Amino acid sequence: MTFELLLIDDDEGLTELLGNFLSNQGYRVLAANDGKEGVRFFFEHNPALVLLDVTMPQRDGWGVLERIREMSEVPVIMLTARGEEENILRGFDLGADDYVVKPFSFAQLAARIGAVLNRADSSLANLETQLIQGDIKIDIPSKRVWRDNKLIHLTPTEYKLLVALVRKTGEIVTLEELVKEAWGEKYKDEIGYVRRYVWHLRKKIEPDPETPRYIHNERGFGYRFLPPEVQSPG
Fold it and tell me: What is the pTM assigned to this prediction?
């Protein structure tokens, strides 16, 4: 299968060189040089993956990513000179699948593209319709979550963490496993991210985040999802 990639970046020299390199790697590459054109190309061509710069005219990468995520879960890799943690986390919160800081090697990026596409294929192959534990219900195709039949609005990162925990209900999920599920293999050592996002997740699904009913901290190991009705008395 030949995958079509959409490269959205206002650096025309980069798009030409990178486009040629990726074409030689067996991909079909479509390039847009501003955010507005990128959104139009995305909806016209329905690519398998998007490579998206952050700083662009017409519409920046954040706006493009938000527009894409309104309609599609296609994999998106952010390409940017902004390597600060707050920008990386913002990208993940908006639904990016990976984040590559400029300058980067084309070979490194090609490896990332392959990994993200493989992960997306694996997720589709193992697609479940629903996950239900206690009064938590997760609809996988629509990525929507309910508690007590009330819709809860989660960010993409919060959603990925919740799914990872619910899929292993009753088991300890290590911090390293949760990082891999939420942000990918290369962030496996950034376990500080997990604690921050678990707190945000608890504030949305727990009746009292200070006394969790669902997501339990197993100190020194990770977290465990356990519906209240299956917990031992006391």
Answer: 0.65
